[in-house]
Amino acid sequence: MAIAGALIQWLRDNLGLIKSAPEVETLARTVDDSGGIFIVPAFSGLFAPYWRSDARGAIVGLTRYVNRGHIARAALEATAWQTREVLDAMNADSGVALASLRVDGGMVGNELLMQFQADVLGVRVIRPTVAETTALGAAYAAGLAVGFWAGQDELSANWSAEREWLPAMDPLARERQYARWKKAVSRTLDWVD
Question: How much is the average pLDDT of 116-142?
């Protein structure tokens, strides 16, 4: 997903809705839901699982009721919906259903997003103690290369969960909202000839 963090940057830099990325959660919590809107951040096309360079971003479902909080919440929810689409494709290709999702990176500090991610996937979402696992992986690889660690089992023993989220959304509501997300995505296609 190429546009997860970039969507939050867009809210900050282009729209001025927030001054810093962590503020998006505070703003999103001012509302109970996204107000029926969906943001599809196809800023330069849709990536996995669509691979459509002709798509462009859209905010759909706008009414006069929608405010800044709804936009912030819809931006966070877009990340979760995009993750679901990629994981659905992976499940279909592999034939193995996802049992839980371990997350990392800057956005995992957003607890509203993590709960929504668990809700839309219908599985447990687990945040590790060390959230920047890309950097940690590079350090582990270097340590293995010079013999600092005995092997991968020693590294696996270092991993621990810091927090977990369990799905709380009704499965019928989840699928109804997912169908609306897919409808929103369909509105972004064929914008570029």
Answer: 93
